[in-house]
Amino acid sequence: MDLLSASGSYAVYGHSPADTVDPRPDQPTLGPRAYKSRQNRPCDFCRARKAACKIAVAPPCALCHSYGRECTFVSGPQKRKRNASQAVSGDGQEPQRRRTDHADSELRLNGAGRLSTSSSPPSNSSPPASRSPVEDVLLDDDIGELNTSSRQVPGAEEAALLQNTDQPQAGRSDLRGHNVNNSVPRVGEFSLAELSTKNAALVGETGEADPYLCRRYRYENDECVLSNIVYRRIPLPPPPSLTDDAELGFAERPVIFMLPDDNLANTGEPRSDNSVLEAAQTELKTMVPTDVGVRLLKLFFRFVYPYFPVLSRTQMLAHDISTVLLDLPLSLQAGIYATSLPFLLYDDILATTIIHSPPPAARLYRICWLAIVQETHTPKLATLQACLLLLQRAPSNKYIMDTPFQWSLTAWTVSLAYLIGLGKSSVGWLGLPKWERRLRGRLWWATYVLDKWSFFGAGTPSHIRNDDFDVELPILAPNAPSTVEGSPCPSTAPVDDNAHDLLAVPSHFYHLVQLTTILSDTFDTYYSIRATSLTTNNFSLSVELAKPLRVRLKTWKDSFTASNSSAENSSPHLDTAIFSTIAPDTLDGNASLVLAYIVTVMALYRALLRAVDNLDSSLETSAYLHAAARSAVLKGAKECGKEAVEFVEDLSRGDVGVWDAFWHSCGFYTVWIQC
């Protein structure tokens, strides 16, 4: 019988306390149950569970091995209790005692992962043959819907067993998967980002576990344990009763995370010695004391967050910042410090203390990378955040493009994002804090942006396909404050992280994501290997495919210009509208977004010019139409080049408010490639 079909009606039948299993391997037999010798007594855990104690050669048994428990033989057999209906007969002889499945109270697991006792009504059905090892693991009551009703067990033997079970082995997690010294709070919500001793990986459909099989496990508090690994089920909202998707047979894939303990990856290679990491941690504390780190974090939220919101203001600024910094992993600490260094001048204290001898940014990035390599064995959200900040570093050489390490790190970051489940929309996940759901969405789109722009600049395909994620596009933050303390620029106003809408992001990041989707579609339309073969020599097809892309670019330009131009000084030109609204003492990073728009338009015209160059002049069909379209393409390409030159000239005349603002690293690459 299939295990999945049997799981719904499988019942756990108890065995006699003295029954044991012969240590020989199980052989499929027919007929009555094989004789089991009473000389080999079961271990304490199997006796309490009323499960077969299967010892192949030497302890531990199969059940204790699957739970990571010590196989002990301390407690003796439990005394049988008489049922109330079993009265003494008239001749003074006691009737034969019934051997039922629930003659004794079964020891079960309560919500905290400890053994408790519960009573079950007797059953007159005969017990089946002993379960296979696979059934013991998959269909075990401790993994399933646990009986939470408990009562006091009389007797010293049961009390001793309970006391022994409450104390897990040193260095291990208990049956609920929580370390005794660092348990996860279970009050209302559960955070995947704040697991200090575990890492969360989304269970995919082709990996070692299957989400459709995992959903058939029996969960308590949305968790179950299998082979010392906790599986966390994410509750989803109930689907609508009648929808088009339901009629077509579509259903939401089960969202289940595997939460292995970090200690299981201690032997993962390659890795650095602990002494090297400890030395790097000490060096970081020496270069950036806690008080300096607090100010650097504030500078990050003031000048970087509005353009690249990869941190959570709710979690980091709502608590004591010095404590928050100490709790951050080494990689993220170094990444935040290095990213915030260019803005030292805008802090009154740092501008007078360390401005002349700041911490070396190159060394901070090296520490960040050293820690990332170690943390990727047990990746968390903080590891991905550190990778994103490392990708945003300024190029080490001002005159040439960076090394291929940049693109390798981008691919690394994309794989981490998929591993921790960022490609799956978390808007409807129940039990996950709102701040974490907002952060997961922003981190995915930050990864998407860097992936598309980095590989576009490298001339290679992207690692993210539209079919591999379902994260909703972000929306503009409603009622965002117009100014931030110490920063008069409206565009640097951070979004309210307590906003009700889980998709709201700052204005700059919203327009960047929208523009990146257009760039991605442009690449897929013209620059993939198959698209190149179709459009290079087909001018008519190239022009036809460009029409919806040009409409989207015009819509984006109008939206961005309207959101950044004042009512008194509006300009039809994108670059003029940006530079005219920047005050001399203001940092505004929207200039990098203007550059990104120009590069996207140039990418479209490059594809059209490629088709014009390969156009066969001997073709007489629609010669007039081809001539008109060719003239329009050449004119549009000329205007695009003129706009790029004017933008560069405006940059050369720009104030420090443009140059000192936050620039996305991909902007540097594209300006060297395209201009």
From TrEMBL:
Domain Zn(2)-C6 fungal-type: start-end pairs: 42-73
Q: Where is the composition biased (Basic and acidic residues)?
A: 94-107
The UniProt entry's GO CC annotations, sorted and at most eight, read: nucleus
Q: Could you tell me which residues belong to the region Disordered?
A: 1-38, 76-134
Q: Which SUPFAM superfamilies does the record associate with it?
A: Zn2/Cys6 DNA-binding domain (SSF57701)
Cite the record's Low complexity compositional bias ranges.
116-132
What name is this protein filed under? Answer: Zn(2)-C6 fungal-type domain-containing protein
Pfam families to which the protein is assigned, alphabetical: Fungal_trans
- What keywords are annotated for this sequence in UniProt? DNA-binding, Metal-binding, Nucleus, Transcription, Transcription regulation
The protein's matches in InterPro entries, at most eight in alphabetical order, are given as: Carb_Metab_Trans_Reg, XnlR_reg_dom, Zn2-C6_fun-type_DNA-bd_sf, Zn2Cys6_DnaBD
- GO BP terms in the entry: DNA-templated transcription; nitrogen catabolite activation of transcription from RNA polymerase II promoter
Question: Looking at the keywords, is Nucleus present?
Answer: yes
Q: Which Gene3D superfamilies match?
A: Zn(2)-C6 fungal-type DNA-binding domain
Q: What PROSITE patterns does the record tag this protein with?
A: ZN2_CY6_FUNGAL_1 (PS00463), ZN2_CY6_FUNGAL_2 (PS50048)
User: A GO molecular function for this record?
Assistant: zinc ion binding
